[in-house]
Amino acid sequence: MFVVGSDNKLRIREGVLIVKEFKTLWDGDASEDKRVFGAELKFMYLSRHWESPYWGMDRKKRIVESHEQAFPKDWHWEASDDYDAAAVEFDRLQVEANPQIRLLNQVRGWFGQIGRRYDDPDEEGGLKKVIDLKEVMEILKTLPEAYDECNELEKKVMAKNFQVIKAVGSKDIGHFEKV
């Protein structure tokens, strides 16, 4: 949805206004140059996007820093219902577009299930549950490395499948082109 250009400016990808919630934000900005819309999207990116330079900060600090960066000091902007709806849709699209975030959300869901299952260690089989939980934690520690290994394997397979081969007459062709 967003691209940060080589000039360090945030650009909106084509088609963003097809998303109803972003179109509503756009239509709600009465300014001729759509300054409010641009500032709201900048704030959304800085405070919510996983590639934002503020992403690693504590949530409250990230929001304050993002707000200072996105809005002029003389603005007294507060999130509207339309902004909140667009932010929820932004989060959903970001998760859909990023397999790592999807995986992290699944892991968070597993933690929730584990937490509900192991709420009472004094319950029958409680010690066994705690041991099982430790085993699960060890397995979860390996997920990032396993994910990276899958990505590397995919790159190797794709490189092999799409590499350019020499054909008769020294013409370069791909695997799916006719000779």
Could you provide a short overview of the structure?
The chain has helices at residues 20-28, 35-48, 59-70, 81-97, 99-117, 126-141, 143-162; strands spanning 2-4, 10-12, 165-166, 172-173.
Features:
single chain; two-stranded antiparallel sheet; disordered C terminus; 7 helices; mainly alpha; two-stranded antiparallel ribbon
Major beta sheet summary? 2 strands, antiparallel
Q: Helix/strand/pairing class, anyone?
A: mainly alpha
Any low-confidence stretches, pLDDT <50, length ≥5? 162-170, 173-179
Let me know the number of strands: 4
Give a structural overview.
The chain is mainly α. It has 2 domains: 1-97, no CATH class; 99-163, no CATH class. The protein is built from 7 helices and 4 strands, in the order E-E-H-H-H-H-H-H-H-E-E. The chain has helices spanning 20-28, 35-48, 59-70, 81-97, 99-117, 126-141, 143-162; strands at residues 2-4, 10-12, 165-166, 172-173. The strands form 2 sheets. The chain has a two-stranded antiparallel sheet. Strands 3-4 form a two-stranded antiparallel ribbon. A hairpin with a 5-residue loop joins strand 1 (2-4) and strand 2. The longest helix is centred in the C-terminal third of the chain and has 20 residues, at 143-162.
